[in-house]
Prior knowledge:
254 residues; alpha+beta; five-stranded antiparallel sheet; 5 strands
Amino acid sequence: MKGEKLILEKIITLIVFTVPGLITYFWINLFGITPSSKRNNSEVAALSILLWIPIVCIVLMVYNLLALISHWERLHPSTFEIPIIKKDWRYVDSLEDLTKLSGSIWFILFYILLTVTVSFFLAMLISKYAYKKMIDKVNEVRKENNIAPLGMHATVWDSTFLNNNGQIIELKKQGETESISGCLIKVPRAHESGKSIVLEAIDHWTNVMEYYDVQIDQTYVDIDNGFVINIYNLEKALEAENSFNERFPDGITS
């Protein structure tokens, strides 16, 4: 019985003191801010603790506001007819109070629901505004130290391929002449094992590039695996495609 109670207390402690930060970290990663390498457990724990602080402050502010309103409702019962206000809300101003309340199913449900909502908007603000401001300030110091500024993306792969624009690419092995071309439609997220990509209309674009010399804007070189990805100028590639379609309306080149 004591063992079950201890396990329950650990689960509740995990929900109250760990989950908010982890959820926020999860949202931030989904919104596109990812580290250059996968973080270990201690780093994730430290970040979760830091992110937990603003979330719990907001959650407890809302909770204490409801407690204040519910106490006012007891003094003036005819003023409020909202069911949620009639709950027995108690003030929380210490970790001890928070720990005691964590034994209430009602409080845990309220805490989780509000935590998910608050963490979403907090992560949105961080990824949309705070992160850019931080990078700008960091780059000011780096420039003063004659160090190249950081980009908004943590990896070269992310900055090259994780955008919302169409890309026509050529993929080949370094040192080889044989290649395939196509429209890049899917790329892996950060920290996915391997770098698998999905190309569309390979035969079509390979034929186009055989007949027309299209300008290459960028070349991505995977030094470890020896793959080269040439990124064509999209406007020139579409012009070449139009010329190819006019010349070979059926797509047959022979």
